[in-house]
Amino acid sequence: MRIYFDHAASTPCDPRVVEAMMPYFTNDFGNGDSQHSFGRDTAKAIADARATIAKLINCQPNELYFTASGTESDNWALKGAAFARKNRGNHIIISAIEHHAVLVSAEWLAKQGFKVTLLKPDETGIINVSELEKHIDDQTILVSIMHANNEVGTIQPIKELSKVAHDHGALFHTDCVQSVPYMHIDVKDIGADMITFSAHKFYGPKGVGALYIRNGLKIDKLVSGGGQERSQRGGTSNTPAIVGMAKALEIANEQMEQNNAHIAKLRDHFVDRVLAEIPYVRFNGNRDHRVPSVANFSFEFVEGEGILMLMDLAGVAVSSGSACSSGSLDPSHVLLAMGVPIEVSHGSIRFSFGKNNTMEEVDYAVDKLKDTIARLRQMSPLFNVKTGGTYNV
Ligand code: PLP
Hints:
The chain contains 15 helices and twelve strands. By secondary structure, the protein is of the alpha/beta class. The protein has two domains: about 15-255, Aspartate Aminotransferase, domain 2 (3-Layer(aba) Sandwich), CATH 3.40.640.10; about 255-375, Alpha-Beta Complex (Aspartate Aminotransferase, domain 1). Bound molecules: pyridoxal-5'-phosphate.
């Protein structure tokens, strides 16, 4: 048995996406910038993909720039906007629970002389509008707050946050990487100036992202080179991936309601069983404002890495935080910002469900999780002190 509960890290490519991509690896391999028919065919495929995505997210095709990842889009939005606006002010605001692509870009900007403020979420992972209002001032040139958080799944009041930024003359960027699979994104409705996308989170290929930049806004380039992407982002376009991204978004939007209902049912059953059957566990996140896929728990007196490894041996793939920080034993910056005590945060695991998961898989995983936690706690001196060694599940 091999079960995948790590869809916030990446999703399998939908077979229909792979099918749409295939011709662009072999027959239709031309460089979209070439003047001959091979090039023209490729350029048309890219233009069609751009038009498809633009229609789905309610923007103009020329407001969409393809990149190599969500990470690149985030880097571009922050660094490009900061330098383009540096004559107007030097203050940047992000939330403390951003993905590292935003967080580390902001840290880098701080080293270049920008002043960076990190907004704290409440204990459920929501960035309240009042928190932004408290810190924004006439030096603020850019606010970047993610739509849905990758570790706990909370959805931010993005329209309200965007409005506050604009009322103060600042640009607003949002990272929609984790919300796209579960919410119809309408860029006009959100009202952001820049939005980040990444295909591999919605059953598309890895290595392709996009940045929406609203018409009229000029930001500095991040990747210089040829005249691709209307001379704003150099590098030969990754045609198969771009075609795949458009197909994946089409499928995600078509099947969103049914997928969301299925995934939420799995998540709810999982959460109910864990809370009922495993003691000393803390649910991290917000019960009302969240994507359907993520359940994040802190299991007291055990280490997340231990849980992850034993679950992996049992055939269940989960995550002890964001995939990009795995390999590091640092506690999650998201959970710490939400006020989870450091020792509790060490025992945290993110389960993220997907459209191909089943209820049988969920039940199998809970059974294995119960065994895993019991086994680890039996070895935990702290736990034995706390309970007098009477642990039994
Ligand atoms: N932003 C968020 C919220 C993410 O969850 C991720 C990936 O985990 C990224 C950005 C980075 O996207 P990519 O993997 O395409 O670089």
